[in-house]
Amino acid sequence: MEVDLCFVMDCTGSMASHINAAKACILRIAAHMETFKPSVTIRFGFCGYRDHCDGVNRLQIIPFTDSKVHFERELSTVSAMGGGDSPEDVLGGLNAAVNQMSWRNNVRTARIIYHIGDCPPHGTRYKNSNDSYPNGDPYGLTAESVLGGMKSKQICYFFGKITEQTNEMINIFRGIIGEFPVYLLNTVNTEMLVNNIFDSTCSAIKTAVSLIE
Locate the Hemicentin-1-like von Willebrand factor A domain: which residues (predicted)? Predict the structure, then answer.
């Protein structure tokens, strides 16, 4: 049994605590899964997104690797910075995860995107205020096109919710791909946040694996 797990995370300035929490629990997640399901091999990957005003720093991608130590080292280079208005380049981050990551095309592979963010994509459909791109993604990406690609590759989507600002995004996404788990990650307590990300990631892996067992 194989698992490809890609974290898609908002890496703008407001997300420092969540990025640090993810860094803190990668080895713990790997160790737990090795004990819980020794037959499961996991590759970790990462697609960080910021916003269009951040130029070359808009996306930060760590390709899939089966070395948890290498992944932890690469993840240590990710920092919270940038961001302009309230919405972020959510669709750009998800699109990169779907189309730039080397997903294994195997019926015995559970493909997972765990998306963690505190703001929705650009566009008035998400009920944004203070949006520099009220007509939506400036590159023409839509939730329908990005999530449609995700669905065609049979990638399971999970969301870590931090603020109420993403409520409409969740509703729109569910209207496109159906129901998906939403984990609450809105605590300001560092230890609780690390535990919540650990628990929710392990839950996402177990859920996705159960679908192909």
Answer: 5-102
